[in-house]
């Protein structure tokens, strides 16, 4: 019995209530033990045993329970600082950009940096790639939704779509799907050609490399001579520890059949391509910027971090237009902190414009309407750009069925060596391949992107995804669920990478706790609708390729009353689906756009807010146009570049 007691203690120690699951009692002296497993279902499983089996299995359970501890990260501690303290720099928001800036500025000894984050430490679900969706709509998400404009998203409950944003150390890099794509040279050439002379594509490339630490062995061998990735930066780039490779190869072949060739490296120079994505994950764990940039810097004496600290206002002289510091709410108390050199706003593409507006920086008329005195009349919140998604549902008979036992094995695999289904984000459905393409074969930028997720026949996740994650109305959900009862669903996310349509962020009120209005305005420019239809119709040809033919693949109709009258796969059908079912791939940007002219931009090429002293913006908001792909890598690049611009302007050089 002593051994059993030890096992019991071991399990309790790791937070497992043994008494609920297992009862052990002795029989026939020392060696024979009858074990009764009382399963959580209430069923009993009686079996005579000499004890070895029980001990072996119990110690295996103990091992797996204890293995949870190996997943935990050592997040930085909160600083003990008093209100009204002064720092050289104050950084607002510890997201993808803010963590980079705080790290790079504090690497100069003697330069004090205060990093303020509205959220707290990421939960363990952030570290485990497969659990990222479970953080949506919790306290780790800002829980934004777009504003119903009566035109788009009418197939969504309330006519709006969720805009998840991370609220924790690492910001959205702690909740995102971890795909790492730099975008293409033309993306940054466009920035440069608009007069942003600090952002020549050659410079941009250097800053991607500065951030990167390529761990992917395949890429390392492939690019040994070209040195196209950095290998000394803080941000580890690798591949996911899990995928269904046989299936992804079939998908790559299928894309290839419709004119999108497979490449070894999606960050290479080709424009039209499909391949395996690199990611900000390593060893089966997420590489957020909190992990890559904050943990290594946490011992620095000159870096101070406050968590659960909501910045409610920037302190800016009405006449001097000089930024002095910030006002925050922390532990239910209002506090002020002052910046000797600068305040850097890195609160993301929704919160950065919100904070600027609350502080009197924005369109004069709008500020007047909400009762805020205007300090600088700038187009804050305008030029909101986002990559939009349209669902394309293709079905097939590939024999895949949900397997709960397999799912448990996958969980055990994750605990054992960080592989299995949980080592891959669920947003993109367990598959690590994607494609980038254009309607014209000679274009210098991809226009479209596809992600692909697979749901097995009759999987309950289909309803969950369409009903709870995207929040489509009943008619839409039922039409997809109905077909998926008998077929596997290949859900292609069709993405328009460079929409012409622009959205807007506006204040709802002066209250910093009120969510701003988000007008996504998708498809307000008719060119976007034309382009999307062209791109989707290139994609739907995939049903005629050998793999999809082999599984009797077909395009399924998504039912939504206004669209039901149109022929499936016709231009009119897709136009109707696009406008009514569009959602986000979570890449908003441009809401404090960089540019030369203060009539059309908020920050200059060195990311200084036009007409306001000692204030910069460094995050996705500054992007004048979107990169060709997922935006986390490009935001981190912007923050690396931005940090050096700040250092240059203050005559600071780091020792590293
Ligand atoms: C669900 C999801 C999936 C995505 N998938 C991918 C992907 O696979 N690959 C990819 O490349 N990109 C992806 N992205 C996009 C990418 O993560 C973002 O572009 C990037 O993280 C934006 O960085 P940021 O620094 O601008 O903002 P964020 O990372 O959002 O950081 C802003 C930070 O500021 C804090 N903050 C805001 N307001 C205040 C305030 N007033 N006071 C104090 N703190 C404040 C926030 O809590 C947050 O921590 C995804 C994004 C999401 C949300």
Automatic annotation (TrEMBL):
GO molecular function, one term: flavin adenine dinucleotide binding
Keywords: FAD, Flavoprotein
Residues at which FAD binds: 311
Parts forming coiled coils: none
Keyword Flavoprotein: yes
Keyword Flavoprotein (UniProt): yes
Residue ranges constituting the Glucose-methanol-choline oxidoreductase N-terminal domain according to the UniProt record: 166-189, 348-362
CC cofactor: FAD
Family: Belongs to the GMC oxidoreductase family.
Annotated protein name in UniProt: Glucose dehydrogenase
Species this chain originates from: Eumeta variegata (Bagworm moth)
Lineage: Eukaryota, Metazoa, Ecdysozoa, Arthropoda, Hexapoda
């Amino acid at each position: 019995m002593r051994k059993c007691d030890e096992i019991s203690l071991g399990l309790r120690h790791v937070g497992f209530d043994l008494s609920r699951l297992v009862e052990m009692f002795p029989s026939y002296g020392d060696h024979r033990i009858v074990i009764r497993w009382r399963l959580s279902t209430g069923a009993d499983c009686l079996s005579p045993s000499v004890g070895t089996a029980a001990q072996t299995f119990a110690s295996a359970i103990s091992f797996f329970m204890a293995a949870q501890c190996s997943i935990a990260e050592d997040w930085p501690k909160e600083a003990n600082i008093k209100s009204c303290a002064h720092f050289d720099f104050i950084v607002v928001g510890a997201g993808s950009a803010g963590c980079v800036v705080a790290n790079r500025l504090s690497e100069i000894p003697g330069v004090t940096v205060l990093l303020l984050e509205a959220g707290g430490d990421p939960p363990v679900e952030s570290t485990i790639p497969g659990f990222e969706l479970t953080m949506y709509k919790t306290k780790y998400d800002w829980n934004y939704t777009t504003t119903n404009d009566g035109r788009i998203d009418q197939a969504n409950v309330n006519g709006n779509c969720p805009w998840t944003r991370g609220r924790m150390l690492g910001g959205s890099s702690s909740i995102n799907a971890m795909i790492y794509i730099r975008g293409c040279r033309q993306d940054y050439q466009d920035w440069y050609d608009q007069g942003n002379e600090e952002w020549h594509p050659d410079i941009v490339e250097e800053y991607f490399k500065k951030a990167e630490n390529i761990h992917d062995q395949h890429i390392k061998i492939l690019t040994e001579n070209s040195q196209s990735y950095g290998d000394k930066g803080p941000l580890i780039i690798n591949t996911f520890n899990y995928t269904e490779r046989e299936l992804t190869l079939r998908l790559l072949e299928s894309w290839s059949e419709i004119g999108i060739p497979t490449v070894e490296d999606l960050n290479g120079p080709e424009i039209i391509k499909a391949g395996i994505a690199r990611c900000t994950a390593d060893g089966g764990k997420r590489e957020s910027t909190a992990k890559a940039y904050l943990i290594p810097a946490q011992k620095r004496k000159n870096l101070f971090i406050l968590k659960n600290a909501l910045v409610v206002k920037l302190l800016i002289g009405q006449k001097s237009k000089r930024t002095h510091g910030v006002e925050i709410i922390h532990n239910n108390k209002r506090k002020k902190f002052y910046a000797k050199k600068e305040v850097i706003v890195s609160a993301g593409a929704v919160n950065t414009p919100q904070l600027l507006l609350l502080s009197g920086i924005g369109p004069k008329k709008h500020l007047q309407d909400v009762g805020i005195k205007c300090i600088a009349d700038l187009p804050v919140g305008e030029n909101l750009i986002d990559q939009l998604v349209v669902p394309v549902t293709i079905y097939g008979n590939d024999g895949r069925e949900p397997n709960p036992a397999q799912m448990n094995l996958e969980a055990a695999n994750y605990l054992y060596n960080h592989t299995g289904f949980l080592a891959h984000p669920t947003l993109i459905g367990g598959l690590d391949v994607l494609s980038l393409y254009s309607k014209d074969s000679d274009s210098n930028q991809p226009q479209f992107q596809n992600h692909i997720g697979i749901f097995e026949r009759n999987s309950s996740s289909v309803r969950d995804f369409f009903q709870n994650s995207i929040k489509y109305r009943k008619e839409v959900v039922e039409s997809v669920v109905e077909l998926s009862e008998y077929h596997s669903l290949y859900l292609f996310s069709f993405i328009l990478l460079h929409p012409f349509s622009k959205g807007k962020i506006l204040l709802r009120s002066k209250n910093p706790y009120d969510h701003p209005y988000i007008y996504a305005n998708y498809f307000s420019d008719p060119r976007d609708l034309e382009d999307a239809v062209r791109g989707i119709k290139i994609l739907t040809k995939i049903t005629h390729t050998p793999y999809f033919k082999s599984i009797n693949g077909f395009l399924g109709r998504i039912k939504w009353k206004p669209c039901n009258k149109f022929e499936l796969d016709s231009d009119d059908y897709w136009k109707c689906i696009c406008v009514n079912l569009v959602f986000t791939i979570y890449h908003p940007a441009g809401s404090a756009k960089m540019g030369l002219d203060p009539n059309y931009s908020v920050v200059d090429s060195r990311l200084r807010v036009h007409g306001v002293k000692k204030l910069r913006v460094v995050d996705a908001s500054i992007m004048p146009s979107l990169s060709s792909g997922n935006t986390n890598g490009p935001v981190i690049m912007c923050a690396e570049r931005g940090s050096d611009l700040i250092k240059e302007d203050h005559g600071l050089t780091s020792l590293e």
